[in-house]
Each structure stands twice: as C-alpha cells, then as structure tokens.
Amino acid sequence: MLISNMFKPLKCLNAIKLRKYLSSMIDKKQKFSIQDEVQFKINCNLNDKEKFNECIKHGLTSNAVLSNEWIFKINFNHLSAGLTLLKKWNPKKMDDLFVLLQMPMTKLVYLTKKTHLESKIVPHGNRVYYFASTFEKNPQEVCYHLMHYKFLFTRDFITLNHIYHILIENSVNKNDIWKDTWIFMYSIDQINHRISLSKKANLPIKPWMLRCKPEVFERTIEIKQENRVVLNKDSTAQYLAKRLKVPEKTIRYISSKYPTTLRVSPTKLKEILDFLLKEGFRSTHILSTPRVFTHSISTLQERLTELRDLGAEPTLTALCKNKTTYQELVNKLILKNTKGYNI
Known about the structure:
Elements: H1 2-28, H2 34-43, H3 46-57, H4 62-66, H5 76-87, H6 105-117, H7 127-135, H8 139-148, H9 151-154, H10 157-169, H11 174-179, H12 188-200, H13 207-211, H14 214-231, H15 236-244, H16 248-257, H17 266-278, H18 283-288, H19 297-309, H20 316-319, H21 323-338
Helix pairs in contact: 3-5, 5-6, 7-8, 15-16
C-alpha cells in the first residue's frame, strides 16, 4: 500500500511531463526525431507506451502518433479495434486515415462495412481517397472535412459523383464546391433547373445559388441584372473611372489600398455616387474617402442632414466616422451652438 502511494506522485509527474513535452513539440510544428521518440518513451507511462506501440504495429508512423495527443486519450480497446477496422479500408498508408479514430466505434464499424461494399464503384477504393484526388486535398484534411459533413460518407455515391460532374461540366469552381459541400445534399433536378436559369441570366454559377431559397435566387438574378444595366459592359473600375472622370489606373490604385471598393455592388455604387455628386461633393472628395462606399445610403443621408442642421458643412470624413466618434462630433456641435445660452 505504501509503495503504491509512493508511485502515485511519480506517475502523475510523468503524465504532466509527457503532456508538456508533447505540447511543446506540437507547438513547434516540426517532425519528431528518433531522439524525440526516445524521450517520449522515457517520460510516458505504461498505458501510453502500450497505445504508442499498438499504433506503430498497425502502420502509423511515430511522427503521426506523437503529433496527435488525442490518440493517448482514446480507450485502448477502441484504439486497437479502430486501427484494425481502418486497415480494411486498404489505406496507402495508415497516416492518411487515422484521424477517423475519433469517430464513435459504431459509426466506424458502419462506415467500414459501407466502404467495403462500395469499394468497387468508388474511385481509389474509398471516399477519403476519392475526395482527396478529386479536390486535390491531403487525405487527413479530407477526413476532418468528412467527419464534419458526415453526409459525405453516407450520401449515395452514384448521386454524389453525378452532382460533382454536373457542376464541373458547368464551370463551377472546384474550390467553391469543396467550401460548400452541402450542395451534394440537393436533388439533381433542382441543381439542373437552377443551372439552366443561371445560364439564361448569364450568371457565373456558385454552389450556394443552386441550393438557396427560391426568393433568394430570384433576388440574386434581379441584382445581377440591375448591376449589368449600371455597368453597361464596363468593369466596376471602368464605371467608377467614368463617373469620377479619372483614369482607370487611379481607381485600380485606390482599390489596391481599399480592396472593398470594387466589391461593392454596382447598383450601390451608383446610388451613393448619385447622392454625393448631387449634394455637391467633388470627385476629389470621393476619391480621397473611398470607404464612403461601404456605408449605407440611409446613414449618409441622415448624417448629412443632421450635421447641416447643426450648422456644419460636413466632410466625407465626418460622414464616415464610426458611431462613437461621430456622436462626439455631434455633441461638440451641440455645445458650440448652445454656448452662452442661459436657461
């Protein structure tokens, strides 16, 4: 009993040392060397050493094991059974798939059976390698992505693959698809219908457009058409250059400093330009304060009216102040107007 109690602090100390050691190595984001592995074995307890050896036995590299502290928090039986299951996925190397060990065992068993059944129809033998090859991603990254979007494991593969090819054939960007894999949950009929409508409207196709609510899609088409009318075949930079009577390179230079300028919709640009020019602001004023385009027209109108009512001749800089500094300006003007007034 006494001996057991004596070793408890030692085991605790070793566990703390191990956690600190692994954390420090992971923070360095470097590969573990043979010396690191030796140091790990010196610091680790019997349970962690057993898990480490089990991983190595199943083909994991020591670097993969030591770089992922969560492995040592998994129950040994779960770890061993999970590694055995993943071998049935026929991985090129176990490092590609081991992150799937974080899934519940029932889920991993189910997916292993499914992977075996569809191994003849899924290119590269399983969905991890299919997505990794298709989207040019690292298999580990794909595993995390599929664990987050679990339907990518379970959606009928023929349908999923068909949707992918429909999108690619219609010039949908591959990276856009990867960032919005919810598109694979939608029906082929809806996707084809939306693609047809998008093409009629001459719109570049994004996955979100194919799955959004009908009213959102319709409004998107309206906005795009309105923007097209405003630009009249010009680019946004060309439109601004013409309206402000400056060379296009001036607009390009300003947008390099304030990239949001060219991201504002043409209809909003037109609305703000019409308002500012009508109110007497010159092109030079507007060009020197490009952030004015990121403000709502209602805010600009309200502030312009308020400041003029307080006897000021507002600058665009004043109109574009944040709420706090704008209110400070208003308070100063109020004090100035009421100075010397006795109640």
